[in-house]
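Q: Hi! First time doing this. I have a protein sequence and I read that you can turn it into a structure. Is that right? Here it is:
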Amino acid sequence: MKILHVYAQKPDHTGSGVYIQNLIKNLHSQGISNYLICATSVSDDIDKDLLQALDKIDVINFDTKDLPFPIPGMSDDMPYKSSIYSKLSEEELNLWQNAFYNSLKKAKAYKPDKIIVHHLWGLVPLVLDNFDSKLVTAICHGTDMRQLKLFNHLNNTNIDFIENILSSIQKLNDIIALNDIQKQAIINNYKVDSHKIRTIGLGFNPKLFFPEKLPNTTNNEFEISYVGKITPQKGVGELISAFKHLQAKNKYNIRLSLIGSADSINLDYYKSLSKTHESHIHFLGALKQNVMAPYLRNSKVFVLPSYYEGASTVTLEALASGNRIVVNDIPTIKPWIPQKAIESGRVLFVNLPKLIEVDKPCPSCLDNYIEELKDTIDIQLEKTISDLKFSSKAERDRLEIYDILQSKYSWTSISNQIINI
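A: Yes, that's right. Below is the predicted 3D structure, encoded as structure tokens:
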């Protein structure tokens, strides 16, 4: 079997980038041939393990003479230099479309048995211009619908671009949603018949993300972790503030590890916010999964204070690694979390503050939100101490949750569902 994967971003750094890397690697392990069309900047390297899993790759380079602007990102704050789709000029949008159209045209010689296009966005019309819709499966990652709402809100002049996306998506026979709430949003936003949409969840690598045996002491420093872009939309400032309040109580020996990319402006700002506690707050940058996994296995509490998420692979990975979880009550996250994890209190939800945009909180609501975030982390730290004192029950709960996640969300399970559509 030969599969063509089409992706308009860098195949790393983001949730969808991690998704496509792991999907391709798992398909390769099953003897399936993979061809990837993706974007990058001329100075970037492609992950070596990903390259080994590919029979062919066609990289579209941005910030070049032919494409003299950064890669457009599905989020407006990407973990690398990027353009914003809604701010592209008509000329830039045409250059973007032509680059991917020509790459897809060349890919016809590969004669794929299946084409997987990522995001319900501008690549879909270009794929359908070159391939029979019966071969195409499109995967929604959530940020595509955010872009659609943003374009509609701005009444963008590139209205033909949006109309072409909508009409093309309606021609698809197979669309994958990451959860049932996302499925309903696809129906509402793209006017797609429900029978064309399948819900196939997130994936994780159970060989990297698994619970290690709990230590037999409560005297160790407790690691609180965050993984994601270091941006305001992810609630990083509010997490730092909540941590500082907890640290001031001298109740626990704790440290906060922030894993993820940041531009220089955001990084400088958050480091200055952390200055009085810099020995306990660590910015680790973006880490490859095999480097990040030991941090999550060592961590005791994982916090995701993000205001908008497509589904959140990192929360899945943290839960599989045995962490207690504190996460905002975002509709797209709760559906995949095992009931066991909620009933046992290993996952606790924080009420979202009032939002003035899709991922921007009302400033006057943040004090109350930070207080609730702090209190919820406090609860999970108290429970962590209890876990260490009564480790046999905690070990059983952690392993039971891991087994549930492995059976439903391993990349083997996800890739098998996708290729059998």
